[in-house]
Design a protein that fits this description.
alpha/beta; TIM Barrel; 12 helices; binds glyceraldehyde-3-phosphate; triose-phosphate isomerase activity; glycolysis; Triosephosphate_isomerase; EC 5.3.1.1
């Protein structure tokens, strides 16, 4: 059963800039965020590329956190050319790590166990983690949506402490067919998947985790569709790609009020 009214969970909005940002595109977004001049009701986390972590952190003057889009699963600094490791995330004073984005899973071949190990290492170091899950179009058409998401979540649950789910994990449900395609899931489709995830949390982790864990939707979220999605009882915010690189990202953050 869906465990709690959405207003009991602080909304969460992530802006995933992927490898799509340059100084020219970042500037107007940061300016819009800074000009908004408000404390957002939602918790806001921006995920720049490694290239732009420090400059974005310095430029942002609003209550928004910075996170990394991916990490390597090594626990210590070392010879891992091209990777970021948890001690570097901490050295930068960052709190958030994203794992399991569909582009990591499907373009770079990250298996469920690899994603889970990254989550484990980040949580063990005291970082907060966005765990991305979601089915491909053929999986949805084969009626496997719930099974795929449960498989991805089970892998994480097998290696992280149960207490992490309430306070340190945000689950991002991102149907792969809706990412960057303009084909947003309907509010009903998204709510059904989010309810499945909340029921999984209750059955696998416990009622308190199910009530507290933020489950956010990602996939072609825009100012024009975020209100209907955000009104669903089990949708606690958004993970935004393309629209997070436009000044109207501020409108999506405002649309994620509790
Ligand atoms: O991480 C964000 C998602 O991949 C969604 O991207 P999108 O908003 O461009 O569809």
């Amino acid at each position: 059963m869906a465990a709690a009214a959405p207003s009991s969970r602080r909304p969460w909005v992530g802006g995933n800039w992927k490898a799509a940002a340059t100084k020219a595109t970042i500037g107007p977004v940061v300016e819009a965020l800074n000009k908004s001049g408000e404390g957002f009701a939602a918790e806001v986390v921006i995920f720049p590329s490694a290239m732009h972590l420090e400059s974005t952190k310095e430029a942002l003057k609003v209550d928004a956190k910075i996170g990394v889009q991916n990490i390597h699963s090594a626990e210590k600094l070392g010879a891992f050319t091209g990777e970021l490791v948890v001690p570097q995330v901490q050295d930068m004073g960052l709190e958030w790590v994203m794992v399991g984005h569909s582009e990591r899973r499907h373009l770079f071949g990250e298996a469920d166990a690899v994603v889970a190990e990254k989550a484990r290492v980040a949580l063990a170091a005291g970082l907060k983690v966005v765990v991305c899950v979601g089915e491909k179009l053929d999986e949805r058409e084969a009626g496997q949506c719930r099974a795929v998401v449960v498989r991805q979540l089970d892998a994480v649950a097998a290696v992280v402490p149960a207490e992490s789910w309430a306070a340190s994990i945000v689950v991002a449900y991102e149907p792969v067919w809706a990412i960057g395609t303009g084909k947003v899931a309907s509010a009903e489709q998204a709510q059904e998947a989010h309810k499945d995830i909340r029921e999984w949390l209750e059955a696998k982790i416990g009622a308190a985790a199910s009530a507290a864990c933020r489950i956010v939707y990602g996939g072609s979220v825009k100012p024009g569709n975020c209100t209907g999605l955000g009104a669903q009882p089990d949708i606690d915010g958004f993970l935004v790609g393309g629209a997070a690189l436009k000044p109207e990202f501020v409108d999506i953050i405002r649309g994620a009020q509790a």
